[in-house]
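Lab channel / #folding
Pinned by the channel admin:
"Please post every new chain as: sequence first, then the structure tokens as a reply. Keep commentary short and put observations after the output so the thread stays searchable."

First post following the new format, from NK:
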Amino acid sequence: MALTLPAHPDPLAERLHTSGLLQELAHGLGGGFHYLLPERFDANLAAFRTALADADVEGRVYYAKKANKAAAFIDRCAASGAGVDVASPGELREALGHGVRGEDLVVTGPAKAQALLRVAVQQGALISVDALDELDRLLALGTGRPARVLLRRHPPAQPRSRFGLDDAQLHEALTRCAAAGDAVRMEGFSFHLSGYDVQPRTDLAGELVGLCLKARVLGLQADRISIGGGFAVDYVPADAWTAFLAEQGPGHYHGEKAFTAADFYPYHSPVAGPAALRAVLAARPGGEGTSLAEQLRQAGVMLLLEPGRALLDRAGSSVFRVQGVKDREGYGIVTVDGTSLSLSEQWFDSEYLPEPRLLPAPGRPAGDGGPFPACVGGASCLDSDLLTWRKIPFPARPHAGDLIVYPNTAGYQMDSNESPFHELPLPPKVVIDHPDGSHRPRWRLDR
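Reply from TO:
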């Protein structure tokens, strides 16, 4: 028996699916592609900003560029004055080249290349310092401009984390910053925390507020903290997710592949995106005293955040053409004109679970023989190249030329691991927008 896990209904995506535009694009582009919806990015950004404003907290949203390589989202950051989180020289160049100001960049990542540090200082970017030797390299640059830095705190609750400065290192870093004079502008602290739980973020943020107060005694600016990303996305309804986890087993997957609940991203989250930020701000650090929002206000500390996936919620999907279908006992194997490199979860020995949609080719009836359970394979010679190991209950048997649309893949899915394996072209990105007053979508290729 096939196991279903539908994504949340999306009226905008459904209009695209029924418009015929996706079939036209697949024909014109000669194969699979990703489509992007910048208006969704704008709405998500606005919702995060509203959460800060409603809590009366001064804050700044930086888009974590690693979540998607598309230029369209950087364009939206530049147009709206949002910041961008970058971690490589290439990402920094892309952001600057699309109009994002240097002072609106935050540079993260461990052990940054010297060339990246130099350009970041020259452009006035904020730099999250992850180690003492990195701070020393910054101070030795001699660019004539002060280095704007946050000191990244090692999370005590996650002792195995490879990121950040422990207590002794943090004390030494503060001492060096205080002694550096005009060579550095120590603006505050940051952290990188794994997982999506609210209270640990609130607890560590509260600690960072206290660190700001201590740093000011040394004459340092210390007026902002960054809590990074980790705002979950809610892909599927709660009841469907609960039923899926309770029922799923090897028999639901090609090759009897076995997954546990811990192997999957939490595709349902009761508190997600901007609502998760509201919860972080409303919670009390350590479970005591006043809320984090109140502590930020009292200390005059600005809150920085770096969401990636959460800004891309419903902002794009991946489309593949069916190349063929074969039968196995009790299910089928659909092969599409792409590979699992375009759905990144598989390369972490996991599975992208929100259910794909089958769009019949023009002129072919939608119904054809009733439910047809099938996994989805890629067009490579690797036996493990499965876009979907699960036997999806398609409403009909797919045929060559049909489209399979994976929903909501803009965040970390559609290009994190893409490679032109077998000399197969990378699926292009198509930007789709809806002009004011018009129901007819327009499209262009992402630059």
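NK: The longest strand covers residues 316-328.
TO: also worth noting, The chain has a mean pLDDT of 94.
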